[in-house]
Amino acid sequence: MSLDFPLDRTAAPVPGAERRAILADPGFGRWFTDHMAVAAWDAERGWHDGGVRPLAPFTLHPGAAVFHYGQEIFEGLKAYRHADGGVWLFRPGDNARRFARSARRLALPELPEAAFVRAVEELVRADAAWVPEADGGHADEGGGAATSATSPSASGSSSSAPAASAAPASGSGEQSLYLRPFLIATESFLGVRPSAQALFRVIASPAGPYFPSGVTGVTLWVTETYSRAAVGGTGAAKCGGNYAGSLAAQIEARENGCEQVLYLDSAGHGTIEESGTMNLCLVTRDGELLTPALGTILEGVTRDTVLALAPELGLRPVERTISLAELRAGAQDGTVTEVFAAGTAAVLTPVTGFKGAGYAFAVGDGTPGPTTLALRRTVLDLQYGRTEDRRGWLHHVC
Question: According to the model, what pLDDT value does residue 134 have?
């Protein structure tokens, strides 16, 4: 039986003037839209009670499995407004498939891919007014955004929204509607086994650039204290525990003057894996686009997009083991000309330097490289509908 998501529209939407003020400078993850998509699952009935309902808190028993055993997963994708006013998703089917893979790894019920996409579609339709106007992400190409990605979070109905007359922030490009589907175990019990009950939700948040520095580049801290995942672990799943475990490393990075962290493999071989929130890619002098092979890292949709687009920019995509020693030597002798990180939230972010215990080195001349910027523009042009979608990645919503 298919799972439907009928709309129960809120009686108290955020006033238009307040919403427009929020969209003028949304930041990242600070505000939320008027509705959420919902569904429930239990072992007896399967999936049921789907719908799009007013955004509101929900109550869980203190014994809910998610609180004690961390049984939960999530996804991240975006809706983009094109120049003609239409709203599109980018590769939502890939997020749906990864959501199902994560569910299997965390012993949660698998939501059918069609239901995942339908839930996202119906929420975007209900809150289409929250999708920012198209600017295509070019406003911050030459400089940083004024918005901080770490601003305090607030609900869409907060009375502390910016004044309606607020002008768009400097560097306010890359605006979109960020979508966060998640699935949590809700059965109340104390005992280590899969939960027999779960709740699915999709919430939405208007988003500007993830990094305040825009495309000026970031420096990564190479941690030797923490690892992200091990063979057989949950590294390939998108679950909250992976991110909770990364916070201490993120603090370590900031204490050392870096914006993000770079993880090495947990077996001590000195091979690079990914950053705290993004996949890593290297551009070589010989025209290769190198990225660590899958296994213990997340199979990023943006990562896969970049690998598919690489030949159009004259690059040969290569997935293989890459050692830190190779990265350091390549940056020193010019074999590695550019490095960037790829992810849904941050799109493509140039990595202009690395620091570690007792060393630091730049990539190239320490500024964003031309290939990185060209790839970034290519991805954004696809997402915002400025170039032809020959692969069927764009998914029309309204």
Answer: 77
